[in-house]
Amino acid sequence: MADPPEDTHLDIPQHIKYWKRCLLTLLPTQYTTTDSSRMTLAFFILSALDLLNAGADTFPPAQRTSIRDWILKCQHPHGGFCGSPNHRYPDAYYEGGESMDPANLPATYFALLALSFVGGLESVNRGACLAWLRRLQRRDGSFGELVTGEGKVEGGYDMRYCYVLANVRWMLRGDMEGPVGGIEDINVESLVRHLKAGQTYDGGISESSSHEAHAGYTYCAIASLKILNRLNNPDTAKDNATSSGLTDISATIRWLMSRQIGYIPDEDSDDDNDSLPDQDNRNTLAGIHSAHAIPALSTTSPEFVGFNGRCNKSVDTCYAFWVTASLNMLNPTYTPLVNTPSMRRFLFTQTQHRIGGFSKHPGGPPDIYHSYLGLAALAVMKEPGLKELDAALCVSREQRARIEGVRGGGGG
């Protein structure tokens, strides 16, 4: 095996430059199609700078106020937040109901987190938001993305909406179950049953046991149970047989560990063909190995290890987070099961970009989503120079503590 590259380190100054450029200048053209998700981008930028110890506390007061005002412009009068000020009409347009560009659950999650970096939650209409959350729950316990003017819940049934719901609920009402300020709670038991029902035969989690397991859904389900204080904690479960934890933790751990893929760069290809590796390399990227070449059975550790989200899929920077964070929540002692040195070398030499940020895959350009989750994965593994991450909330532990301190000041 060749000697490991010498530049296996996190280039913190370049990453700070990248994120400040995202904050202060126009984003690349490809982001114009994500206007409805601008709140998501705002959170990634603010939280990445926080992880790099260059967060909003270092901004001029006027800049913090400007960001805060921009976020609050997206607050919906019937509860929740829209994804961009361009998707929030003047109040008069909502007098007959919320059918015109209703608030959506992911935008609300990212808005509350983003607000926590530039102040408290005192301007959030907590009462309206909590009442809106209840209307998003279906009879099977799942949550949708939004509610139409006719009261119909729209959006998928997958674990992402359960995850953002659990976090929004925690930020607005804490760990208390039952009515708060005269507002009924969601059906927590029904939600927990829905989360558990997503575990598949191989141990991973999907939107139901009959679908293919996915690392992102697995993370969302585990994090939801963690935030709800129901992750393998029988002392807090009202009904241990139906409500506490996952069905088969050992199978989940085994499935998560199998997402590690040994990556072999194609050293003979020229720069013009970097995005088109040969067939053997494509097989390796997708986790397809011959019987004698399965990394788990090898006596030597691969130089580079990436992660995929499903069997026979390519490695992707974001799955380094979904997998390591899931293991960390199940039990912090499980994270040493990850081949951390080889994972770091993969991220630093294969997807870390020279201008800062991380790409989705080797040879690609950096983007906000993968750049943040690359940092988050390293923060889970306690990378020097980064703040430690709270795996469930996907912000630094320091920021989680700050949210706990300011959430009691919510309005409404």
Structural account:
Mean pLDDT is 85; it is low at 1-6, 233-243 and 268-299. The protein has three domains: 1-14 and 39-59 and 259-412, no CATH class; 65-186, Glycosyltransferase, CATH 1.50.10.20; 187-252. 41% of the residues lie in helices and 4% in strands. By secondary structure, it is mainly alpha-helical. It has helices spanning 12-24, 38-51, 61-72, 105-117, 126-135, 159-173, 188-196, 215-227, 240-243, 249-257, 279-285, 317-330, 340-351, 368-380, 397-406, and strands at residues 146-147, 153-154, 260-263, 304-307, 389-390, 395-396. Strand 1 and strand 2 form a beta hairpin. Residues 10-395 form the Prenyltransferase alpha-alpha toroid domain. Its cofactor is Mg(2+); Zn(2+). InterPro entries: GGTase_I_beta (IPR041960), PGGT1B-like (IPR045089), Prenyltrans (IPR001330), Terpenoid_cyclase/PrenylTrfase (IPR008930).
